[in-house]
Amino acid sequence: METPLVRLSDEESETVYEPSEDSFLLIDALEADLNSIEVIMPGICLEIGSGSGVVITALAMALHDRFPSYFMACDINPHACKVTKRTSSTNSTKVDIIQMDLVTNLLPRNLFDIIVFNPPYVVTEPLEVFDERLISKTWAGGLEGRQVMERLFVHIPDLLSEKGIFYLLVIKENDPEYIIQNFRNLSMMGSIIAERKIRGEHLYVIKFVKNDGQL
Ligand SMILES: C[S@@+](CC[C@H](N)C(=O)[O-])C[C@H]1O[C@@H](n2cnc3c(N)ncnc32)[C@H](O)[C@@H]1O
After folding, report:
1. Rounded to two decimals, what is the model's pTM?
2. Residue 126 located in a structural domain
3. Does residue 10 lie within any of the structural domains?
4. Consecutive sets of 10 residues in the chain, 215 residues long: mean pLDDT of each?
């Protein structure tokens, strides 16, 4: 998969997450799993918390010539929404973006074939996730670093199509096995498809499908 060109002004860098090792591991994992993605011929792809838009744009660049797929992203940070839009058009793709808190405004109609999330995963004091500063939203994960991502989990089965795939970036402190168990209780199977140790962080990408799907 090609790495999209991303440009952030100094002012945008103050609140918008710059493409980092976690973003690139997620792109690498999507690239390695491109065969399974192609098999399901995704109609609608969604990235939650798109930041600069580097991940959803990379996916759009890889798929848009081959499938009539629709790409969508959301972020709680309005500046991230603007940058995601720009990154997609700079790289000649089309991504529609909505500013919202996680998936608040989406109907639970099993419409999405691919959902991708690189959440704020850093372990912090629980109250830090309520910090209003937009830059804190890029990393503050609260207890076990799971406070933000856990609000999403319960919605995934109702958003994903039957053949859909959910890709989640986490770190060791988030306890990937605990998260996989959580999804078992939601009738979904998960497995780690990529991992990388980098500058004191152990990053993982977990792939989830519904129980009757193919991991
Ligand atoms: C670790 S950054 C990842 C950015 C980008 N996806 C990447 O991989 O480079 C987390 C992103 O999630 C967004 N975010 C945090 N809390 C959110 C929420 N409640 N709803 C939507 N987006 C959120 C942040 O603004 C930030 O852009």
Report:
1. 0.97
2. yes
3. no
4. 96 97 98 96 97 98 92 98 98 98 95 98 97 95 98 98 97 98 97 95 97 76
Q: How many domains does the chain have?
A: 1
- For the Cβ of 23 lying below 6 angstroms from any atom of ligand 1, the answer is yes
The residue whose C-alpha atom lies closest to atom 11 belonging to ligand 1 is 49
188: containing domain: 19-210
Please check whether residue 6 lies inside any domain of the structure. no
> What are the distances in angstroms from CA 195 to CA 14, 90, 144, 168?
28, 30, 19, 12
Which atom number of ligand 1 is nearest to the Cα of residue 50?
6
CATH code of residue 168: 3.40.50.150
Cα Rg, the chain, nearest whole Å: 16
Contact 71, 56 (CB under 8 A): yes
Ligand 1 in reach of 17 Cβ (< 6 A): yes
31 CB burial (10 A radius; 0-12, 13-18, 19+): middle
Is 106's C-beta closer than 6 angstroms to any atom of ligand 1? no
Ligand 1 atom, smallest distance to 137 CA = 15
Is 8 within a domain? no
